[in-house]
Amino acid sequence: MKFEAVLFDLDGTLLDSIEDLTDSMNLVLDGYGLPGHDAEACKNFVGDGVEMFALRALPENRRDEATVAQCAAEMRAEYRKRWSQKTRPYDGIPELLDDLTLRNLKLAVLSNKPEESTREMVAELLSKWQFYPVAGARPAVPKKPDPILAIEISQQLRLPADKFLYLGDTGTDMKTARGAGMFPVGALWGFRTAEELKDTGAEVLVEHPSEVLQLL
């Protein structure tokens, strides 16, 4: 296979952000007098946008539309205050990005985080490398696993979808890659299980970022 670009998910793939996400949600839940969750639990809540994070974090008897919307809004506000306190690239990611850059592969990011936040995180924590495009959730545009933004990225880079290796850590990512016609690779250092990644279409599972280079 001859890939010319790598499309990355952000949280759980490039950046280990689960502690800041967990802390932010728990502060919101505490404000409602509700119990919080540990980071392992939150790994199963995130990945599909902040509204779904809020829905999953709330007790079943508090998942009415108004409460979910309020919780999501407060989560966004809390997360803006602390998103960079503990979040860092995973071990091996800087070396992977260095090597991909030397090989002249194009690097892009697609997240279900709001686009402004996605771009801010990439600019702040991954500024050494050139990513284009950097895309996130936008109003009135379907989130992953809808492949619309992945397809848009392939069009912006003027590359066929089958020239993209898509690296992500959730079933949402694998479905997105499949829907866009990209090669889905599951990152086992992230938020979800090997079983989920396989069941949703991963062609290959990698345990460390350096293993991605073997696929090029």
Protein architecture, described:
The protein has nine helices and eight strands. 45% of the residues are buried. The model has no long low-confidence stretch (mean pLDDT 97). A six-stranded parallel beta sheet has the order 5-4-1-6-7-8, with helices on both faces. By secondary structure, it is an alpha/beta fold. Helix 3 packs across helix 4. It folds into two domains: 141 residues, HAD superfamily/HAD-like (Rossmann fold), CATH 3.40.50; 65 residues, DNA polymerase, domain 1 (Orthogonal Bundle).
Which key features would you list for this structure?
single chain, 216 residues, alpha/beta, Rossmann fold, DNA polymerase, domain 1, 6-stranded parallel beta sheet, two-stranded antiparallel ribbon, 9 helices
CATH-wise, what's the superfamily of the largest domain?
HAD superfamily/HAD-like
Whole-Å distance between the termini? 7 Å
Secondary structure category: alpha/beta
What is the helix content?
A: 40-55%
The CATH topology label of the largest domain is Rossmann fold
Shape: globular
CATH class of the largest domain: Alpha Beta
